[in-house]
């Protein structure tokens, strides 16, 4: 990527080494590894049910990794000892579903991510309101701060969710299928926002996605998860590259990358849901 700060020391923001994870007798991750360097825009791709969301939940500490099942380090610290979660923000898949019928304004939705620092019994002050305004400004939604969240389009709601994740000034941004259900124009605009955050604000990003069309221009590194294992794709295999290899031929499910998205067979949905 261009326009990035040159560093004499590059920290591994995410260092996943040789992890395994199962749901009952179903092996989801099998000695998988993944590394994301500071300042990089990395993507994780794979078919539905491959284990991408499971891997994300393990990174967020929402699921516990067995003692002898590999290691996860965040910003150089073992996840079991990691406490500085305010440096990490997460944009979940379909994260606005629970807010659509909720009578809250855009400002209130973004402000909710500051309550841990404001305190339960304090009202937001000028500082917090300015933080919210700046976060909304970064995603081009500052003119909508008084609008009810349910009256926004899907693309606008996803921008608000991104602003909510930015209000704490994170160093690492994790996104799980952030453009799911959004039209092509809003998807492209959302990717441009992410690219600016990565290049201009030097934010490290890991995005789980099925959308392959823009990866070559967006991502520094693309990881493929299949059969419980991960591998870093060589440059010539990154989707969007004119010399790319058809990675779908290596997938267990029926996939096509001709239109920039995985077209997956009906049979690939996991019995465990969205893994």
Would you give an account of this structure?
The protein has 275 residues and is α/β, with parallel strands linked by helices. The chain has a single domain (12-266), classed as P-loop containing nucleotide triphosphate hydrolases (Rossmann fold). It is built from seven helices and ten strands. It has helices spanning 52-59, 106-111, 115-118, 126-138, 154-166, 184-200, 215-218; strands spanning 12-23, 26-37, 41-45, 71-74, 77-78, 88-91, 172-176, 204-208, 221-226, 229-232. The strands form two sheets. Strands 6-7-8-3-9-10 form a six-stranded mixed beta sheet, with helices on both faces. It has a four-stranded antiparallel beta sheet with strand order 2-1-4-5, with helices on one face. Helix 4 crosses helix 5 (154-166). The longest helix is centred in the C-terminal third of the chain and has 17 residues, at 184-200. Residues 243-274 have low confidence and may be disordered.
Indicate the proportion of strand residues. Answer: 15-25%
Identify the CATH class: Alpha Beta
Give the count of helical stretches: 7
Low-confidence stretches: 243-274
Ends distance:
30 Å
Number of extended strands: 10
Judged by helices, strands and strand pairing, the structural class is alpha/beta
The CATH architecture assignment turns out to be: 3-Layer(aba) Sandwich
Number of domains: 1
Shape: globular
Q: Compute the gyration radius: what is it?
A: 19 Å
User: Which quaternary structure do these chains form?
Assistant: single chain
- Write the element-wise H/E pattern from the N-terminal end onward: EEEHEEEHHHHEHEHEE
Output mean pLDDT: 82
